[in-house]
Amino acid sequence: MLRSILRSGSDADVAKAVDYAKCIKLYPLSQAANPPATTFVDAINSVYDSTIPYDLRFFQSLDRIVQTEPWLPRDKLMIDMLKSIGIEKGKPFSPDAKSQVILNSAAREAHALLESRYEGIFTPPYFDISRWALPALPDYLKASQVASPIQTSIPSTVAVLFSLSPSSRPSISGKASSI
After folding, report:
1. Tens digit of pLDDT for each residue in 34-68?
2. Which DSSP category does 115 fall into?
3. Domains along the sequence of the chain with CATH
4. Which segments of the chain have a pLDDT < 70?
């Protein structure tokens, strides 16, 4: 799913965003030599609920992802944790009544924890003159500054940006640029 940030809501700006999006090609790396055409679907009339369900439905959704997506070597720890609650690739997820109560409670507790920490996650701001921030807890950001490339799966270009100390972060003057 792509989302454009438009200069305005004018027909011309919408058309530019659509044209730009259609320049993007998505295909498996194994087909890079002869990529298939990318299919674009306009979802303007499609209802899409992107709210996180903080109940058993969260785990059901997670199971659908586990069943669909390939595992990567870095996922080993998560594979074992999910297996402990009954989510396992190739097997149906059907928690008994007691497990459903526990999972519903866990989801509500996670929601309460996220709500209590939400504002703190966005401080300090990435730039002192803006409201932009990295949506991560300060302890994680501090740890990521000292992690070696082998210890983290964050792409190096992103890791470099995240690892900059406040005094060495680029200043904003006029236009923003992309990497």
Report:
1. 999 888 887 778 888 889 999 999 999 999 999 99
2. H
3. 1-48 (no CATH), 52-120 (1.10.3360.10), 122-168 (no CATH)
4. 1-2, 124, 126, 135-138, 141, 144-179
The two counts, helices (H) then strands (E), for the chain are 6, 0
Whether the Cβ atoms of residue 163 and residue 144 lie closer than 8 Å to each other: yes
Structure tokens at 135: 């949506």
Q: Are 116 and 72 in contact (CB under 8 A)?
A: no
Q: What is the pLDDT of residue 144?
A: 67
Cis-peptide, bond into residue 124, ω within 30° of zero: yes
Kindly state the tokens that stand for 32: 């890079």
Task: Kindly give, in sequence order, each residue whose CB lies less than 8 Å from that of residue 133, ignoring residues fewer than 6 positions away.
Answer: 121, 122, 123, 124, 125, 126
The pTM (predicted TM-score) of the whole model is 0.55
Alpha carbon separation from 177 to 22, 61, 141, 173 (Å, rounded): 21, 36, 23, 10
